[in-house]
Amino acid sequence: MAKTERVGGAARSWAVWLVLLAAAGAFALTMGVRQTMGLFLSALNTSTGLGVGSISLAFALGQLWWGLTQPFAGAVADRIGTGRVILLGVVLVAVGTFITPLMTTTAGLVLAIGILAAGGAGMAGPSVLMAASARLVPPHKRGLATGIVNAGGSFGQFAMAPIAIGLTAAVGWASAMQWLGVLVLLALPAVFILRGNANALAAQAAAASGQKALSARQAIAHALATPSYRYLAGGFLVCGFHVAFLATHLPGVIAACGLAPEFGGWSLALIGLFNIVGSLAMGWAVGRWRMKSLLSLLYATRAIAVLAFLLAPKTGPVVLVFAAVMGVTFLSTVPPTVGLVAKMFGTANMAMLFGIVMLAHQVGGFFGAYLGGSVFQATGSYDWVWYIDIVLALGAALVNLPIREARLARPAPAGA
Predict the structure, then answer these.
(1) Are 156 and 90 in contact (CB under 8 A)?
(2) Least trusted range by pLDDT, from 24-28, 201-205, 382-386
(3) DSSP assignments along 251-274, one per residue
(4) Distance of alpha carbon 133 from alpha carbon 348, whole angstroms
(5) How many domains are there within the chain?
(6) What CA–CA distance (Å, rounded) separates 117 from 384?
(7) CATH code, domain with 108
(8) Rounded to the nearest 5 degrees, what angle is found at the Cα of 313, between the Cα atoms of 307 and 316?
(9) Vertex 250, ends 99 and 63: CA angle to 5°?
(10) d(CA 173, CA 42)
(11) Any domain includes 1
């Protein structure tokens, strides 16, 4: 009997690791391609002659659409399973990225970057992938599980930036983008590994608790009526502003400092590399300290790092050190944010509820991407965007402090 239990436990452990690796791998490919698009902004501007402001609008709308798709993708995944949603998402990312070099108008870039690629990345994005992973592990290990999946996205950024630079040097920027679109299709095996688990595990959880599951409308109403959930979303909005500005405009910031273009690519790669460290460390820390305190610390660290960067001389080593520090905090906000949603509301509607928080994140992302281009076009400098970023980061550090970190009483479902 004991031997049978050990074999069964080992099989379950391997199954969990397989799911985590599939989710992390899918996130690595979709996030990696998406986060390297900023490297092509200058080439797109030169090719189309549309201006940095117009091209930034396509990137900004992509940030917003990526967030808008996630609550709906999460709701569908909660009901019919994860695999089908990921399949559609991966295909859309591939198509949108492949056709981007063929677009010559602002409307065309909005379609390719802002709707197809961004919408697909939202469907195969963190709300769906992390919710599927969180359901598979016990509560005290959810932080580490989401940290692993989040680190996958960071590794994708670290790996894809040098690949994009190398492809651009070898075949030109247009073919490089199209090859990145093809590479996204390597995420398709995750569709089969993750298929159906969201729906099945949610049903098992509801049966085990003896409670009827809340409808999507009831779950959303309950969450939006909770002040702590609103505080969490407000802080995450600031995270989106910061992340989108860096992902879209850091190469431009570095170019404005008079440094070689290679520093832009390696800075994005360092952000991805050090975010692996930050994500795994934060996944470990979530089980040991209050998640709201960890979030406040991360946002305060961003504010201090940006201020130090503005005051420091703009040399190559300074830029790379700044990128490394930003990498540690870049998406390490995700594990405690996911953990707080799961802790407050459980996992039955987690993909949808975290998707709504991600929508707030991407509203911030819209302004981070768009204001970066608009302010630079108007003033010839990114300084005012950095000032706004510092103020917002300090506000996010404060708004997370009143969050009540406890499981909330759930309302009675309809028909109970």
Answers:
(1) no
(2) 201-205
(3) HHHHHHTT--HHHHHHHHHHHHHH
(4) 13
(5) 1
(6) 29
(7) 1.20.1250.20
(8) 110
(9) 50
(10) 10
(11) no
Rg (CA), the chain: 21
Q: Which residues of 21-47 are buried (b: 16+ CB within 10 A; e: fewer)?
A: ebbbbbbbbbbbbbbbbbbbbbbbbee
Block residue for tokens 């677009």: 103
CA distance 305 to 386: 11
25 falls within a domain = yes
Contact (Cβ atoms closer than 8 angstroms) between residue 148 and residue 20: yes
Cβ–Cβ < 8 Å for 279, 150: yes
In a domain, 181, yes or no: yes
> Burial level of 58, CB count in 10 A (0-12/13-18/19+)?
buried
123, 146, 356 from 65: Cα distances, Å: 11, 23, 12
Burial label for 292, CB within 10 Å (0-12, 13-18, 19+), is: buried
- CB atoms under 10 Å from CB of 309, counted, come to 18
Q: Give the containing element (helix H, strand E) for 68.
A: helix 52-80
Which tens digits make up the pLDDT trace of 162-206? 888 888 889 998 999 999 999 999 988 887 877 654 445 555 555
pTM of the entire predicted model: 0.71
Contacts of 338 (CB under 8 A, 6+ apart): 126, 130, 131, 134, 142, 146, 350, 354
Q: What share of the chain is helix, strand, coil (3-state, %, to 5)?
A: 85, 0, 15
In this predicted structure, what is the pLDDT of residue 155?
82
Query: What tokens does 30 get?
Result: 């979709």
Residue 415: inside a domain, yes or no? no
Look up the domain containing 313 and give its range: 20-399
DSSP 4: H
Distance separating alpha carbons of residues 79 and 51, to the nearest angstrom: 43
Closest-CA residue to 389 (of 247, 268, 234, 242): 242
Q: What is the mean pLDDT of the chain?
A: 80
Tokens describing residue 215: 């409808």
| Block residue for tokens 């975010």 | 275
